[in-house]
Amino acid sequence: MSDILDEVRFGVIGTGRITRRLVADIQSTDGAKVTAIASRTSERARWYADQYGIPNGIEGYAKMLARDDVDAVYISLPPSMHGEWSIASANAKKHVLCEKPLTVSLAESEAIDQACSENGVRWLDATGWLHHERSETFARWIQEEKFGKLGHISASVSFYQPFQSGDHRLDPALGGGCVLDLGWYAGGFARFAAGQLPEAVFAEQVVIDGAAQKLTALLWFANNLTATLSCGYDTATRKWFEVAGSESSLICDDFTRPWNDRPARCWIHDAAGSVEQHSFEGHQERRMIRKLIGTEPLAALHRQALDTQQIIEAMQTSIEQKTKVTL
Ligand SMILES: NC(=O)c1ccc[n+]([C@@H]2O[C@H](COP(=O)([O-])OP(=O)(O)OC[C@H]3O[C@@H](n4cnc5c(N)ncnc54)[C@H](OP(=O)(O)O)[C@@H]3O)[C@@H](O)[C@H]2O)c1
């Protein structure tokens, strides 16, 4: 249970596609509610507030941070704006839930961590899959060496979408492109499964219409553990991974978010061809919100986010310099 306040009052910044889902998740989490939403325009703020049962629709993001009836801010803006508004929220003594990717650079992400720490507020990036009960089981299994010695991790995250003009995913100035957008999931999973940063990274991208639309990367970890990542906007939805060990492999086809109307699932394949299926209940976003407003230490989740940002930065450097990058 939260002991920050009896009920944590969220203000939302931005009125995009994902906002709808997170507003409903905050509204349905015990101990949390949404009291205000801010947009660049008053019309959109009011429309959104009326549509989703939020008491206050506000024009301008800064006004949100001055409100006394807001304890925490959910930031749902294009990635290039995450750093500025997360730091401003922390300086206004509001807890921060910032959409993924956390920011567009490691330095900016570290600045959020520092601003939150200096202001005594909590922060999380809204990477929902990390908070599913299933992911905690994955971590335990890996820790217990259930699959033997790990040799390889692969993660593939994609969706096929003809973008509408103006989509921030196609605008590098707004932090667009699949390296940040989808590499956040695949690179983050590799770091999660390996439990550490890679020692080296090599990455390539395909740029179409000015933005990275396909990413292929190879990561080298200690003890001969390797990982391959495949991300893009060029193939149908994939959100899967394989963690291959000396005794068996863990396989999951929905790690970023369970398929609609199906329980979260995974399989363990052994060397003799037998397969064990596991299913999990639970709601990853509500658990994430509970963690933000609760009291449990968040340092390991912060490390996961900062390491993910560092992996992405290494991939970007590798792409630019067309070379293997050592971390
Ligand atoms: N966790 C997840 O599962 C998940 C899923 C999808 C997206 N995301 C992340 O959520 C964030 C938002 O993505 P989205 O797809 O919801 O974005 P979106 O629909 O384009 O919405 C972004 C919002 O940001 C505001 N904004 C401010 N300046 C802007 C600018 N120059 N261009 C565009 N929008 C601007 C707009 O709100 P106002 O006009 O009202 O101010 C807009 O509605 C991204 O970081 C994305 O990676 C996360």
UniProtKB/TrEMBL annotation:
It holds the Pfam family GFO_IDH_MocA_C3. Keywords: Oxidoreductase. Gene3D superfamilies: Dihydrodipicolinate Reductase, domain 2 (3.30.360.10), NAD(P)-binding Rossmann-like Domain (3.40.50.720). Transmembrane segments: none annotated. InterPro entries: Gfo/Idh/MocA-like_OxRdtase_N (IPR000683), GFO_IDH_MocA-like_dom (IPR055170), NAD(P)-bd_dom_sf (IPR036291). Residues 8-122 form the Gfo/Idh/MocA-like oxidoreductase N-terminal domain. Residues 139-250 form the GFO/IDH/MocA-like oxidoreductase domain. It comes from the Bacteria. The keyword Hydrolase does not apply. The keyword Kinase does not apply. Its EC number is 1.1.1.292. It is an enzyme of class 1 (oxidoreductase). GO terms for molecular function: 1,5-anhydro-D-fructose reductase (1,5-anhydro-D-mannitol-forming) activity; nucleotide binding. This is 1,5-anhydro-D-fructose reductase. It comes from Novipirellula aureliae. The gene is afr.
